[in-house]
Specification:
Belongs to the ABC transporter superfamily. The protein has two domains: 205 residues, 3-Layer(aba) Sandwich (Rossmann fold), CATH 3.40.50; 90 residues, Alpha-Beta Plaits (2-Layer Sandwich). It has nine helices and 14 strands. The chain has a six-stranded mixed sheet with strand order 5-6-7-3-8-9, with helices on both faces. A five-stranded antiparallel sheet has the order 13-10-12-11-14, with no helix packed on it. The protein is globular and about 75 Å long. The structure holds adenosine-5'-triphosphate. The site of adenosine-5'-triphosphate has 12 residues, from strand 2 and helix 1.
Length: 316
């Protein structure tokens, strides 16, 4: 079977603004592809170009082997970033309404349960909480059991438990062969769900790969965050790279076994601290490193983070 989502050299401008500057990508069947990137990076524009709601200035897109405007809608699910169904329909009525648009559709009751709203079926959409509304919106994209699903920030505004419900749902869909193209600002979401992640910045896909590969390549080393008002210079003799950020000192490359030595260092110098937290590098570090780098290249600025470096050339 052919690759369900393919973009080649997609370009889109709005006046002087370059929203997409030649994006090429493909997403395989059953794959979850997460598109991340700063506000205004072009994510929604890319989703719109792939789903036929905006026409690119150059390049081509194919979804389910068709032009985006000619895709068999029975096989496609699209959740736009801004989606406001009628407020005076209940969650159940809304899903039944959207299901009725398709000759073959799932039982709306099952979809309601899938998005964790079995108990809220009789509530008007306008009376649901923001997170419940978003879950109904996700549900509307599932009624036709789509083969390809575009979800533009599906979990924005959803509480942690509801988010996990949606995550499990997406995982189950992908396992059953649904191709999922997702945009998100939630790095935990991208890391958990995505087989591959693409980082869009300034209309360009500046990095792509599995979350693991991106972390290994771009995220740097582990970080120990020390909440302290001590001056960065007080850490000069520590055997690890250190950077300061506000009332935090960030020590890089510390393994869990090294934490004791850092604590000894603090105690020996009477450096007061109110908290220590250690973390493995993750996708958020990748995002910060690459988004900053791209922003730097774009603006040619040299001082963007407000971080003061102690005795290394690193940023935190
Ligand atoms: N219809 C439009 N008219 C004019 N400019 C637009 C239009 N749509 C998008 N843009 C511009 O194109 C750029 C990319 O916007 P886009 O919405 O694709 O970004 P995004 O990555 O989805 O952002 P966010 O994370 O904030 O949702 C922005 O500078 C935006 O202002």
């Amino acid at each position: 079977m052919d690759t369900p989502v393919v973009a080649e050299g997609l370009e889109k401008r709005y006046g002087e603004t370059v929203a997409l500057s030649g994006v090429t990508l493909s997403v395989e069947r059953g794959e979850v592809f997460a598109l991340i990137g700063p506000n205004g990076a072009g994510k929604t524009t890319l989703v719109r170009a792939l789903t036929g709601t905006t026409e690119p200035d150059a390049g081509t897109a194919r979804v389910l082997e068709a032009e985006p405007t000619a895709v068999d809608r029975d096989r496609l699910g699209v959740l736009p970033q801004a989606f406001s169904p009628p407020g005076r329909l209940t969650a159940r009525e809304l899903l039944a309404y959207y299901a009725g648009l398709y000759a073959e559709h799932r039982d709306p009751e099952d979809v309601l349960a899938d998005v964790g709203l079995a108990d809220a079926g009789e509530t008007w959409y306008e009376d649901l909480s923001g997170g419940q509304q978003r879950r109904v919106c996700v549900g509307t994209t599932l009624v036709n059991d789509p083969g390809v699903l575009f979800l533009d920030e599906p979990t924005t505004g959803i509480d942690p438990a509801g988010r996990r419900t949606v995550w499990r749902l997406i995982e189950a869909l992908a396992e059953a062969g649904t191709t999922v193209f997702l945009t998100t600002h939630d790095m935990a979401e991208a890391e958990r769900l995505a087989d591959r992640v693409g980082l869009l910045a300034g209309g360009d896909l500046v990095a792509r790969g599995t979350p693991e590969d991106l972390v290994a390549e771009h995220a740097g080393s582990s970080r120990l965050e020390i909440e302290t008002t001590a001056e960065p210079s007080a850490f000069e003799d520590l055997a690890f790279p250190v950077a300061a950020r506000g009332e935090e000192v960030i020590v890089r490359g510390v393994s869990p076994a090294d934490i004791g030595a850092v604590v000894d260092y603090l105690d020996a110098r009477d450096l007061e601290y109110s908290g220590l937290s250690w973390s493995e590098p993750d996708l958020e570090d990748v995002y910060l490193a690459l988004a900053d780098e791209t922003e730097l290249e774009r603006t040619n600025r040299t001082d963007r983070t407000g971080e003061t470096l102690a005795h290394t050339g690193e940023t935190a």
